[in-house]
Amino acid sequence: MRRRGLLAAGAGLLASPALAQVAPPGCRGPVYLTIDTGWSREAEAIAAVLRRHAVTATLFIADEPTFRGDTSLSDSWAPFWRARVAEGHSFASHTWRHWYFAGDPGPGRTTFRSRRGQGQVVLDQAGMCAELQRPVDALRRFSPEARVLPLWRAPGGITTRNAVALAAACGLRHQGWTRNGFLGDELDSGAHPNAALLRRNLANIAPGEVLVMHWGVRSRREPFAGIFEELVTGLLARGLCFEALPARGVA
Prior knowledge:
The protein is built from 8 helices and 10 strands. It is globular and about 50 Å long. By secondary structure, it is an alpha/beta fold. It has helices at 3-9, 11-14, 43-52, 78-86, 125-142, 161-169, 194-204, 225-237; strands spanning 29-36, 58-61, 90-93, 100-101, 110-113, 120-123, 147-152, 173-174, 210-214, 240-242.
């Protein structure tokens, strides 16, 4: 989508029509699973769990390096994303470069910086809209029918005042996660082994939580995917049900 069109129409051009969601009988309340891109080594295994248990998630997409030596929105990943679209998941922007917001140098500008030594840029309004729109455009090339929400997530969840305001002018609301929704797949597995993460998550996750995880994290030696199915079935057994984020997001 062209930047001018995005600025003019905001969320209406990005989002597909909202899908009605009805909680199943006996549901104590929803939880909102969100998955960011990342190393993607366990992507197929995680996707299989979602499929087996009919879990609907919201997928935040960026063009990050993967275990294959390519990037997550390169053409080689098109079949993966097409399958997720066909399964009914929703999508939202996680920025294109997956750099980090690092301060506001002046009105209407925000600094966007690489943690891999690739430099930094200062984004103005047009630059911010282009950064957020580019992953959506890549997804639309693969699957024009994908349901894209008028939401975005900053890498690491780190925002600045100007970054949030600039994105809002693009028609996008920032979506983070709740405290108990941090599933811990980015943590060191020596200090935070899977068994401990599973116990903590099952004990603490309550209705209304926004959960965050990745399709695989390069630095974690004990992949979180090893307990993902137990987490899903445990939450379902507690009467929680998985829903995609609403278009307005969850505060």
